[in-house]
Amino acid sequence: xxPADVKLDTLGxxxxxxxxxxxxxxxxxxxxxxxxxxxDDEGIKKDMPAWCQTTGHExxxxxxxxxxxxxxxxxFVKKTK
Amino acid sequence: MTTTQIEPAATLAELRESKPDRVTIVLLxxxxxxxxxxxxxxxxxxxxxxQVTMFFTFWGLNTIRKKGATSSATDWLRRMFGFLNKGGAxxxxxxxxxxxxxxxxxxxKVMKQNRMPGVPELMETAKELGVxxxxxxxxLGLMGISxxxxxxxxxxxxxxxxxxxxxxxxxxNLFI
Lengths: 81, 176
Known about the structure:
The complex is a heterodimer of chains A (81) and B (176). Helix content of chain A is 26%, strand content 36%. Chain A has 81 residues and is of the alpha+beta class. The model of chain A has no long low-confidence stretch (mean pLDDT 92). Chain B has 7 helices and 6 strands; from the N terminus they run βαβαβαααβαβαβ.
């Protein structure tokens, strides 16, 4: 488990909404805080690291969970700028 | 419930080093699916911090026309054309399986059920994220579309050289 300061629920949303919601939410965070983005869109596995690389935020880690035969992805992003 | 760690470094390594920061998209098409692709790319790029410019021409102009807008031209040919070619991001047909509107209605229903944003919602998001809209003056004139029948938030009315000046600096230039 990676500790997070703020949690963002994007369950049920498809690309590009999780990324757009992340880009909006990260603005509300303070420097160094970690945002946990919960998604069931598999694309986030590649999209979130790509978003972090382009924007300069730090990709802390990613977790994959299986609950009730649904796959859920948790991306942890640290605000660094 | 099982939890597995994914190594972000592995996925990062697959990405190229280049950092495109300017994107231009020419939207010539006026179909729902093509406009969706254009606005998904535009909003995605803007969310990545890239500067995005969209250039609307021909049928693509229908997305930035007010709902149900017709032509305000004075000559009957363009008036007739404007009557047949109604505007509005809500009214775009699918490029396939439109079936006189039925297929498109069904697709919009499926999109709603899946919480997928439609073209009007994507356009709203695009504006929030600072995507710039340029309307092509030549095709506006050709199709008898006046500026007052366009939606709010058109940043520029310009031609091909403005587009090319932008595109020259863009590392991602798309024509849809």
